[in-house]
Amino acid sequence: MTRPSLGTGAEFDLIRRLLDASAPDPPRVALGAGDDCALIEAGEDYLAISVDLAVEGVHFRADWGTPELIGQRAVRAAASDLAAMAAVPIGALVALSVPDDRDPGFTVRVGAGCREAAEALELGIIGGDLARGGSELRLDVVAVGSVREPLLRGRARAGDELWVTGRVGAAAAAVEEWRAGREPAPEAQARFWRPEPRLSEARWLVERGASAGIDLSDGLVADAGHIAAASGVGIEIDAGDVPAVSGIDLPLALSGGEDYELLVAVRQGIFEEAVVEQFEEVFGIPLSRVGRVVVGHGVRVFGDGGQEMELETRGYDHFA
């Protein structure tokens, strides 16, 4: 497999510079950096391996929730990388760095949240590390899975349709409310602290023809840009078809991150009405067509009148 091209933005410019200085992938590494997981040959299957870092003050604030919720969110977000590749979960390794001012009971409660999430996702905690120091809590979660037919970012083709699972915008709305000193709605808090990695949904979609995909961590427009860059295509999104959570502003639904829903490309006409109804019946969430893949590059967003929209932000970038 060829290493896919990365999307735009300061964060990915820096990653490109780091990768340019790296050695070639070693034997048995079918896919190195550039997608949601690395893929390592393991018989007829691949091991899918990803690492996800959660830093207090950047990804969350401790006063927004409980120590258990902090652990829950870190493991669930890491497991979403497995969903993005349509992998079956195997296990997770959790490294935890605890600030000097937190007592041992706080650490135990964070670990309990990690364990609870792992058990719910059938993702065993198979190792990790523990350190003390600094002023911020840090969790580093390595997720490991197995996959035979991986869902890759680089397989979208002009003429494909773009589909999104579930509804978007609630997690980003929760963050906006917390930062404004207000209490978010319970649903928004749950979507932020307990995201649902679409593990079974991803495998279902691949079995029915999804050819490219990504999970929505940086925002719909930003993550669509990763598919566009990896596949060497352009993407057009119809803003009016984006399945925003009720009451969420459309710009936030387009650019807010942390939803961990799936965005997939599929050949035109494969997801007929009966397929969509079956998906919604099996999983209890909507499956919505939000746009198309075209010849070109980058992502364009169109409003109800067919006019291209200019967005203040296109998604989260750590180094912007």
Describe this structure in words.
The protein has 320 residues and is an alpha+beta fold. The chain folds into 2 domains: 35-147, PurM-like, N-terminal domain (60s Ribosomal Protein L30, Chain: A, 2-Layer Sandwich); 153-302, Alpha-Beta Complex (Phosphoribosyl-aminoimidazole Synthetase, Chain A, domain 2). Helix content is 32%, strand content 26%. It has helices at 10-20, 67-84, 104-120, 170-179, 186-193, 199-207, 220-231, 250-255, 273-283; strands at residues 29-31, 38-42, 45-55, 88-98, 124-132, 138-147, 161-165, 210-215, 234-238, 262-266, 287-294, 298-302. The strands form 2 sheets. It has a 6-stranded mixed beta sheet with strand order 1-2-3-6-4-5, covered by helices on one side. Strand 1 and strand 2 form a beta hairpin. Helix 2 runs parallel beside helix 6 (199-207). The relative contact order is 0.17.
Could you name the key traits of this structure?
320 residues, alpha+beta, 60s Ribosomal Protein L30, Chain: A, Phosphoribosyl-aminoimidazole Synthetase, Chain A, domain 2, 2 domains, six-stranded mixed beta sheet, 9 helices, 26% strand
Query: What structural category arises from helix and sheet content?
Result: alpha+beta
The largest β sheet comes out as: 6 strands, mixed
SSE topology string:
HEEEHEHEEEHHHEHEHEHEE
Contiguous low-pLDDT stretches (5 residues minimum) are none
User: How many β-strand runs?
Assistant: 12
Quickly count the domains: 2
- The CATH homologous superfamily of the largest domain is termed PurM-like C-terminal domain
| Rg computed from alpha carbons, rounded to a whole number of angstroms | 19 Å
> Strand arrangement, largest sheet?
1-2-3-6-4-5
- Label the CATH architecture of the largest domain: Alpha-Beta Complex
